[in-house]
Structures are given as C-alpha cells and as structure tokens.
Write a structure and sequence with these properties.
Distance between the termini: 28 Å
Helix content: 25-40%
Shape: globular
RNA sequence: GCCGACAUAGCUCAGCGGUAGAGCAGCUGUUUCGUAAACAGCAGGUCCUCGGUUCAAAUCCGAGUGUCGGCUCCA
C-alpha cells in the first residue's frame, strides 16, 4: 500500500514546516511530480507579515555580512521561513562555526547602523545589467526566467525591483522593514548544503539558517522549544527507556529491545482487535519475491532503485517494498462472488526499501518497517460505506492516544489512470463519507495518487509538529486492472472490484517514534512497556512483592519487581526515570494489611490500597485504552 | 546520493602531537532503609576501520563506514 511520508521534521529544522507543506505526501504507488523552484517562487521571499518582513530583511543583512567577509560570494535566494530565514551562497570554501560568529558580528554592526531599506525600480534590462556587473549569475538566471515567462505569456517585460540598505543591493520583491535597526534578536543556527533551485544537477550552495524574533523573550521561547524537542527526541528516549537501538550492521533498521517489543506487541494486539471486530482476515505473504511480480506491478520500472534485489540460481528476486501486489494472489486463489465482498485482507508484512543513505533518520525514516497494512476488495456500491467505516477506525485508534487526526483529501491529478467517470464516482463517495463524518478536512486538489484518490491522515504531536501516519487510498486501477482481479456479479458476469489500501498506524516504527515524542516517553498506562514497578522497602518485603507481582501477571499486566538492595528512594528515582506509570511501595504496614502505597509518575500518592483493588484498577485502565 | 559536522568505557562527555580520564551504569563488600541518588573498593578502552605524515598519532592528513543537521529523492 502507500506508505509513510518523509516529512521527518525536527523543530530544530527551521525549514521543516515549509518543506512539509510542499511534499508531505505519503508515497503512493506512482510518481507525482512537483514543480518547484519557479522564478516567481524564488522571488517570493515569503514576507507576508511584519514578522516575515523582518525575517526576510534579516536575510539581506546576513547576505551583506557574508559578502563583506567573502567579497566574491554569489547569492542564491534568501527567503523568510517559519521561525526565521535562510540565504544560499556560493562561496570559495566551506563555512566553519567561526565564520558564523563573524557573520553574526557583521550583522550586528549593520543593525546598529540602522540603514534604511530603499526600494528601487528600474527597467528589466537595466536590472539585468546591474546584476551582471555585480557578478551575480544566479540573480541573472532568475531575471532571464522571468523574461522567458513574460515572452511566453505575451506580456511586457516586468520591471526589476531591488532593495538596498547601506551599500548592499539585492534583487527582491520586498517588502522589508523600514531599516535594519528594526531587526529584532536573532541567532544564526546552522549551515547546510542546498542545491540551486532544488535540482541535484545544479551546483550545491551553502545555506545558512537563522532565526529572528520581535523580542528577546520570543527568541528565548523558541530556543527553549528546540531544547524541549531535543529532550523528547525518540532517538534519545529510545536509549534511555531501553526500547530499541540501531547498529551499523543494518543501517536504517531498528533492533527492538524487550521493552520496545512489548510496546510494539501491545499496539499490534490492539489494532488486531479492531480488525477482527471489523471483519478483516489476516494473511501473511512472502518477503522475497520474484522480479516478474514487480514487472507486472510496475515497481520494477519505477521503483527499482528503492528495492533490495538479489540473484539466486539465475533468477532475480527482491525484498518486497510493499505488500499490495501480494494480496492479489490470495484474492485470485478462487472465484469471488459479489456476496464475498468486501473482502478485507490485513497483512503485517515486513517491508524493505532501499532509501538513500543520507535520508535515514531514527524510526521515522527507515529501510525496514512493518505497516498495519490492509487491502480491501469491494464493489463500487460499497465504497462510501467502507470509507466511512475506515475513518471511524482511525478515530477509534487515535483516541487511544488522545491524538486528533487531520484528514486531507487528495483529488484526481492531471495525469491519472482510469476513466474519468470512475474517478468522479469515487471522489463523490469519498467526499460524502468525509462530510458524513462531520469533522473538518482539507482538500488538496489534484493531490491524489495517479491511480487513486486518497485521504491522508496527519497528526500533530505535543510540540505542534505534524506527521503523516495513516493513509486511505482508493485504488481504481493498480490492483484491479494490472492484476486482473474480478468477481462474479448478480448477473453472473465477471466484473472489476475496487480496492482500498489502508494503514491506520502507518508504519509501526514511525508511529512508535511519533508516540514516544508525543508523550515524551511517558506512554499511557494501557500501552506502557512496564505498567508498574513493585518496590519492596527492605529484603523482608521481597516475598510479598513477588506475591503481588504474580497477581498482576496473572491478569497479563506488565509489572516488574525491583529486588535490588538499593534504597527505596533510589528505586523510585529509577522508576521515575523509566517513566513507569505506577510505583507500588511495600513495607511492613502494607505487607501486614495486603495493601500497597501507590505513587504515580506525577508524584501523586495514595496509601492503603488493597492488592485486589489495585489489580482491578490496572486491569480496567488497560482494557479501556485511555490516553 | 550531495554539502557540512561528528564518532573516546554500557550511557553522557572531557582530553586535541609525548603514560587514555570523569560522572552515571556494572561487579564485590558493607548497608535493609518510607516516596527522585546509602558508603567503600574493584573492574571496564583496537580512542569507528584502513592507510599516510611523524622519533612519537585518540589528537594532523586521506579513504571507507555509521550517525547528526540540511538538500535531493521518496510507488
């Protein structure tokens, strides 16, 4: 089925929100082309408000400082972005942290001088000549593109607008703040490589990211937000909580430790329960699959670079990057009647995708992952009802975590396979299902997959970052046509079913990564790897602790006893660090009365609860799956 | 894949041409304790790998691998 997206965003990434707005898709089955880096986009510095103007102005001031340090520096573009700004430069050598400090110093001097920003408009040709003389080929290229565009549209050449402050002049549409002195507290963050106009075939420039705010408090708050994000980083918490690890013998593939696997299994069990209830049938399909299957599906032609391919006895095989084509073999293993539909086949298959080395990142961008994948074969008249039910599934599941899913409806792109009429019907039904749900949703026109309209589901984590997780894709062509799936209708004729690819968690790996950051490692009681730690105060209380442990384990609750000779205080500290929901302290009083002193991870205390009462309480909380 | 940075004990990190360090964790002993760290001792390293420069390399240089921040890609 489709898959995860790549909007792997760190709050630290000042650019994140911008890029995700552009390409937060989730890799459907065929390529979708995005046109970006057009001349207009390059000129639009994103300055649409006071703060944005200031950010864009900061970019100019930074360019000025860079040029005074590197006189021949060629300028790319320098827009405002969420939380700050950047500017791209072609420089004679790589920048160092010392350079950043020097650039900051230069910027402060310019801000102190309070140069006014002066707008100037000249003819196109004068403008071009100006930037040619200044030795700014990238700016000239932008102007040439604008000219070509005007030519094509039969409109007159646009004038060239520039902004000057002090001696620094830049091609720019504006707007800017009145003068450099209006620029607030700023900080240069990082240097990164960035291709000119986003093309791998063009030169790589050095991009400097900076952040700037109206007040010192805002800047401090932003930096604090970055610190908080770092504290919640799932890669860091994964080590601290002993959930998983990564090793260079298998880059991009997690090794799940016992506690991580326990969490995984809890999530898997929970979604299985939903699937069983909803009439899914679980299947399991091979991981190693002959090339001819991928030729038929189109993956061989279009996705080969992302597949792990191997030879055996003169035959070519690949690790599957998706489950979808495999399910057709089960569908087609016998003649299907219209009475059999919808047929819902779920598959927790292990997928491998050979992602380029530089793109891997923790659990959110991996080479090996598992989706809570399913393929639903249904009659066209069942579509609306099924979509509605699937949206309900998403709501139910996300409710377990207190997550609020956001739906984005992607409609027919220009290049689409399948009859217009089929698309219209599908889109009408999807829209009806969304409307029936009564929750707000976004529509992204032409954002559907090549073969299918789709609903993507995003969630926002505790820091306001958005992640693509679930997806529902209505496949009109790919599985039905390419794999020649049919069912026998009421008239005894073989007709095409529709198919739906769906995943609720998306990839379990990514979902766990997102959950870890959302909860800062303090998972809800129902899915916490360790739900309670029993803490005997002294050795003589260990037997009682084992008794209580047995009671809890008999109910399949996840509990540990800390029988070390640490002091109680230290045992509590360790449990707090592991973010265990309940600490059950047992001393003389408790053993005597068969009670526990409960301390939860918020530090709240409740004494004298009987063992039975606690077992029931924890069992109830676990079954309820409350966030 | 591309640009840049980083890689030292299980973890977090210091050391940056001249005998490998700290805290935590671990082990041993003592301690048996009432809500976020008891005390003492011991052990622990191919300083990522390979090559080079040097009398001498964890330290400088090159290549490789991995990770991180970006870019690109992402059926």
């Amino acid at each position: 089925m489709g898959d995860r997206d790549e909007s792997q965003k760190q709050a630290a990434d000042a650019k994140a929100a911008v890029s995700s707005a552009v390409d937060a898709d989730e890799a459907p089955l065929f390529f979708e082309t995005l046109v970006r880096g057009s001349a207009e986009e390059l000129l639009d510095a994103g300055a649409h408000g006071d703060l944005d103007s200031m950010r864009h102005s900061s970019a100019h001031v930074m360019a000025e400082a860079v040029q005074s340090i590197f006189p021949g520096a060629q300028l790319g573009i320098g827009p405002a972005i969420e939380d700050g700004f950047y500017y791209d430069f072609l420089l004679p050598r790589p920048l160092t942290p010392d350079d950043l400090a020097a650039i900051e110093t230069g910027m402060r001097a310019s801000i102190a001088a309070d140069h006014p920003f002066v707008r100037n408009e000249v003819s196109f040709h004068e403008g071009k000549e100006l930037f040619e003389k200044m030795g700014q080929p990238f700016k000239v290229e932008i102007l040439d593109d604008l000219a070509a565009k005007a030519m094509a549209a039969g409109t007159p050449l646009p004038p060239t607008t520039t902004y000057r402050h002090g001696t620094f002049v830049d091609l720019c549409k504006g707007p800017h703040v009145a003068s450099t002195g209006k620029i607030g507290p700023f900080k240069l963050m990082t240097v990164a490589g960035a291709y000119w106009r986003g093309s791998e075939k063009r030169p790589m420039l050095q991009r400097i990211y900076g952040t700037v705010w109206s007040t010192q408090e805002d800047l401090d708050a932003y930096l604090a937000r970055l610190e908080e994000a770092k504290r919640r980083d799932h890669r860091r918490l994964g080590v601290q909580l002993d959930l998983f690890s990564f090793h260079d013998v298998s880059p991009g593939s997690a090794f799940w430790h016992p506690k991580g696997q326990r969490l995984w299994r809890t999530l898997e069990t929970a979604i299985r329960e939903v699937q069983d209830k909803r009439g899914y049938q679980e299947v399991s399909t091979p991981m190693l699959v002959h090339k001819k299957l991928w030729e038929q599906s189109g993956h061989w032609a279009n996705y080969q670079d992302n597949m792990f391919v191997m030879e055996s006895e003169g035959q070519t095989f690949s690790l599957k990057p998706m489950n979808c084509p495999l399910s057709t073999f089960i569908y087609k293993s016998k003649l299907r009647s219209y009475r059999d539909l919808p047929l819902r086949l779920s598959d927790f298959g292990r997928l491998h995708r050979n992602e380029r080395s530089g793109t891997l990142s923790g659990l959110t961008r991996v080479r090996h992952f598992v989706q809570d994948d399913a393929h639903i074969y249904l009659r066209p008249d069942q579509l609306q009802g099924e979509i509605k039910a699937l949206l309900g599934e998403v709501y139910e599941v996300y409710g377990w975590f207190g997550l609020d899913p956001k739906f984005t409806f992607g409609t027919r792109p220009d290049k689409a396979l399948g009859a217009q009429e089929l698309w219209d019907t599908a889109e009408t039904q999807i829209k009806a299902a969304l409307d029936e749900l009564g929750k707000p949703y976004r529509i992204k026109p032409k954002d559907g997959a090549f073969y299918a309209p789709k609903i993507d589901i995003q969630i926002e984590d505790a820091l306001g970052r958005e992640w693509q997780t679930a997806t529902i894709q209505v496949d009109l062509v790919m599985l039905p046509e390419r794999f020649d799936c049919t069912y026998i209708d009421e008239n005894g004729e073989a007709v095409r079913p529709m198919t739906i690819h769906r995943a609720v968690y998306g990839s379990l790996e990514r979902f766990i990564g997102v959950l870890t950051e959302h909860f800062a490692g303090a998972f809800p009681v129902w899915c916490a790897p360790v739900q309670a730690v029993v803490i005997p105060i002294a050795d003589r209380h260990v037997d009682g602790a084992r008794e209580l442990e047995a009671l809890l384990k008999a109910r399949k609750l996840r509990v540990e006893v800390d029988a070390s000779d640490n002091r109680m205080q230290n045992k509590i500290r360790l449990a707090q660090e592991q973010k265990v929901p309940y600490m059950l302290v047992l001393g003389d009083r408790e053993i005597e009365a068969k009670t526990v002193a409960i301390r939860n991870r918020a530090g709240e205390q409740e004494n004298g609860v009987t063992w039975d009462a606690f077992v029931e309480r924890l069992a109830d909380e676990t079954a309820a799956r409350r966030p």
